[in-house]
Amino acid sequence: MDTDLSFQKNNDLSIVLCGQAGQGIQTVEYLLTRIFKLAGYNVFATKEYMSRIRGGTNSTEIRVSSEFVGASVNRIDILIPLDRGAVGHVEKRISPQTIILAEKETIADDFDQTRHKFIDVPFAKTASDIGNKIYSNVVAVGTIAGLFGVEWQTISKYVKQYFSAKPEDVVQSNITAAKEGFTLATGLINSSEIKIDIRNDTKVKGQILLSGAEAVALGAIAGGCNFISSYPMSPSTGVLVFLAGKAKDFGIITEQAEDEIAAINMAVGAWYAGARAMVTTSGGGFALMIEGLSLAGMLESPIVIHLAQRPGPATGLPTRTEQADLELALYAGHGEFPRIILAPGKIEDGFYLTQRAFNLADKYQVPVFILTDQYFVDSCYNTDFLDLSNINVEKHVVKTEVDYERYKLTANGISPRGIPGFGRGLVVVDSDEHDQAGHITEDLGLRTKMVDKRLRKFELLKKEVIQPELIGSGSYKNLVVCWGSTYNIVKEAVKNLGRDDIAALHFKQVYPLPGETMEYLQRAEKTIIVENNATAQFARLIRLNTGIDIENRILKYNGLSFSVEELTEELNGMLDHG
């Protein structure tokens, strides 16, 4: 069979590996993305997985391209199923053009192989010949990398590096497995069963490969984070794990608290003591933190909260994605106090926004949210090196005098923040309403003044709002509004439409809402909003702030992100074609 894949648009191929948890699919993703990047290919990867330690069915998607790619597609060009349930799991994504590389034993009996491009590749048998079927995934790594023409030296060097902490016999067995897979690829190429022709991109070797979780964690480090207290909860745990791994290098105290209530109270206490603290959690965990959030509001304590969204209510789909906690972050906490909500779109936004969050929290003494989701934190792609030239850790702590008042009434609402031991003053804070010195009060007139003082900061926050990004023509008639992790998906879908009358408007700060929002919306003849939730939460926030109701809505809430193809089709169906 002569199967030429070089026809794919933009020299772009989608590889999907699928199998049970415990089969090392994430190892394959990690190895291949790094190997492809070292070989000069643009690469994007994302995953979907069940809430199980072993068993179930998981898949990972890797896009390899001659041009930048940063979004998930539905299309599967090469499928590698590693167990009998894998093909059925992704069958709706398989097309007549999909090539399935697998052993016949891994294909279920009810799957018609004659109707698909199936090539028998002995991954498991090859691994068994080496000594253990566990090496099947690394055989697959060698095969796929070999099909793309990656040099063996590049493959072997990285495989050796990845397994370097293992015993030498394990390292050698994995190198052998990759080599045998590479040999299988050579045979497929020589027999003309597969031809792949994707150009290298000279820019890629000078870039870095970064996941959303890594970007947020690095942003925290750049923001001066020196204390993180959290309770592990997917999909936010990656940030905690990364910072724990870098704790000694950057002087970070990393505390796995007994629960989320303790975690946020530790973080508030850390800020009181002069640290720059963060918590990372998901919806159910944040629900437990809400009283601590209100405590921060009353104490006027800075705090940075990374909230990685997943479908609810309750446990919901704990390993899937959704954008359904916007209103939770917006309205959480009893009483009224200001806050900031940032929602990175590009992975590099995760770095820059998190770094900025620490400075904003410190300056205005308010909670700052970094609102991501499973799709964002678990996706990765190559990007330019992060620009550190304008990165500064801005601290706004004052040296106290004897007559220091923590909650001094000021015209702009920001009281000078002292910390214990820095100066001669006593730093008094209290969760009850308090006077200027921080002592409990039930003076109702003073209560009104304190509430007004805290809320005055909101006017200052509006002056630091990050403006939305307009993608496409400034003379648009149709405007697609999106926020957070949908950025690259929407951008590629709009590009696919090939129309000069459409643009996208992406928000990376969703609260306070940028003042120019209404102007952008009023210029459009038709406005469409794209959200990964069931009730268009961001559309409601826009209506609340502008009075404009975006009636055209594309919503998805089955636990998966949008694919580029489905969003392109949905947008095309809503646009006028006259």
| Envelope shape | globular
How many domains would you count in the coordinates?
4
CATH homolog superfamily of the largest domain: Pyruvate-ferredoxin oxidoreductase, PFOR, domain III
Radius of gyration: 26 Å
Q: Enter the CATH topology name of the largest domain.
A: Pyruvate-ferredoxin Oxidoreductase, domain 3
Assembly status: single chain
| Average pLDDT over all residues | 94
Q: Helical content, roughly?
A: 25-40%
Structure in words:
There is one protein chain. With 578 residues, this protein is of the alpha/beta class. Helix content is 37%, strand content 19%. The strands form 3 sheets. The protein has an 8-stranded mixed beta sheet with strand order 6-5-4-1-3-2-14-7. The protein has a 7-stranded mixed beta sheet with strand order 9-8-10-11-13-12-18, with helices on both faces. Helix 2 (86-89) links the parallel strand 4 and strand 5. The chain is globular and about 85 Å long.
How do the strands and helices of this protein lay out in sequence?
Blueprint lengths: L11 E10 L3 H14 L3 E7 L6 E11 L12 E4 L4 H4 L9 E4 L14 E4 L2 H8 L5 H12 L4 H11 L5 H23 L17 E4 H11 L4 E4 L6 H9 L1 H4 L2 E4 L3 H14 L3 E5 L1 H17 L3 E7 L16 H6 L8 E3 L4 H18 L2 E7 H5 L1 E4 L60 H19 L6 E4 L5 E6 L3 H11 L4 E6 L1 E3 L5 H6 L3 E6 L5 H10 L5 E4 L8 H11 L4
Parallel strand pairs: 1-4, 4-5, 5-6, 8-9, 8-10, 10-11, 11-13, 12-13, 16-17, 16-19, 19-20
Antiparallel strand pairs: 1-3, 2-3, 2-14, 7-14, 12-18, 15-17
Helix pairs in contact: 1-4, 1-5, 3-4, 3-6, 4-6, 5-6, 7-8, 7-13, 10-11, 16-19
